[in-house]
Amino acid sequence: MMSLGIVLALNHLYDNWTVAGTMSATYIFCAAIVTPFYARLFDRFGQRRVGVVALAVQTVVMLGFAFGAAFRIPIPALFALAVVTGLAQFSFGALVRTRWAYALRGKEDEDSLLNTAYALESAIDEIVFIVGPILAAFLATSVNPVSQLFVPVIAAATGGTVFFSLKGTQPPVMTPVDVTAPAADTGNGEDAGRGPRINALLKRNRRPHARTRSALLYPGVWIVVVVFVVFNMSFTAFDVSVTANMKAMGVEQFVGLQLAMFAVGSCIGAIVFGSVKFPGSHWKLMVQFLAILTCGFVSFRLSMNHLILLGALEVLAGLVVSPMFATGNLIIKESVPAQSLTEGLAWVTTGGSVGASLGSSVAGVVLDAGGPALGLMMPFIFTGCAVPLAFVGWLMARRRAMRMSPTADV
C-alpha cells in the first residue's frame, strides 16, 4: 500500500507520473538496501530484541511521511522523508519464513511441509495484495488523496506488535559455544592421548570471534537475487502502467480491483503449489514459471483496452507468481546454513524491492514519454530478460549437483 499509495498521492497532487514513480522508487530502493543489514541483526541478536526497536522507529517515520504528504510540504522535503521511511523498513516476510523453518525442523517429510508453509505464506501475501490495492485506490479517489498512506502505518504497528509478542516460534540466536575437552587419562591407559587430540580438533573448529559469512556469498544465492531484481521490475511497471491506462480511460476508481485480479490468480497458484509436488528441481520450475509469466504479460499488452478480458488473463498469469516466489525462497533455504537463513531470505526480498524500485521509476519515465501503450510493453521485456538469467542459475546448480552426486535430479 505504501508504494502504490505514493504513486496515487503524488500523481494526484502534482499530475506527473515521473515524480510519482521516482518517489515510489526512492522509497522502495531505500527499503531494499537496508533489508539485509536488518536481517543480519535479527540473526545475530534475535527477532524480538531487534524488532521491537525497529518497529517503533518504522512507525514514527511512516507517520511523518504520511503527514508530510497530507500537508503538501515541498517536493525535496518529501523526497527526504521518503528516503528515511524506506531506510526504516525491514522484511517481515523473511522473519516469518525463518520461523517456519525453525518450527518445522526435524519433522517427518520436513521439505514437503516447508514447501507447503512457504506456499501458504505466499497465498497470505497475495490476499494482502488483493485487499491493499483496492483499499489504496478507494481511499485515494473517494476519501482523500493521501489517506491511503495512513493505513499501512496502523497495519505495521498493530501486526508487528502482535508478531514480536509470539515467543514460542522465535528461533534462538545461534552463537559459537566453547567446549572443554574431557580428561585425557581415565587410569586404564585406554584413553591416553585422547584428550590432546580432542583439544586440537576443538581448536581447529572453534572460531568464537569469527565474523559470520554473508549469505550472498553462498553458491546460487547471488543469481537468485539477480533474477528477482530483473523480473520484479515487471510488477511495478505493470501497476503504474495499468493505473495510467485506466486513468486515461476515465475509470481510475476501479484500478485497485483491476490490479487485484493478478493477486487472485497468484493466491490460487499458491494453494495449488502448496498442495501438489511438482517434478524437477526448484531451478527448473523457476525457468518454467518465468517463461509462462512472460507470455502472460504479452497478453496483457494485447488486451489493455478490454478490461474484463485483461482481468481474466491476469488471473491465469497470476497462477505462477506465488509459486515463483516460494521457489526462490526454497532455493535460498537449500543454499544457506540455518544461522544465516533470515539474511538469505532477506536478500530475496531486497532483490525484489530493488527490481520494484527500478520498474516503478522506468515506468514513470516511459509513461510520460510514450503513454500507457508503451508502458505496458515494459513488463514482458523485463520478465523475458529474467528467463535466460534463471536458465544460467539452473545450469550452475546442475553442475554443482553433478559434482556432488552424479545421479542427482536437477
From TrEMBL:
It comes from the Bacteria. PANTHER family: MAJOR FACILITATOR SUPERFAMILY (MFS) PROFILE DOMAIN-CONTAINING PROTEIN, PTHR23542. Keywords: Membrane, Transmembrane, Transmembrane helix. It is found in: Cell membrane. Pfam families: MFS_1. It comes from Bifidobacterium vespertilionis. The keyword Lipoprotein does not apply. InterPro entries: MFS (IPR011701), MFS_dom (IPR020846), MFS_trans_sf (IPR036259). This is MFS transporter. The chain crosses the membrane at residues 20-38, 50-71, 77-96, 117-140, 146-166, 215-235, 255-273, 285-302, 308-332, 344-367, 373-397. GO terms for cellular component: plasma membrane. Residues 220-410 form the Major facilitator superfamily (MFS) profile domain. The keyword Transit peptide does not apply. It is a multi-pass membrane protein. GO terms for molecular function: transmembrane transporter activity. Signal peptide: none annotated.
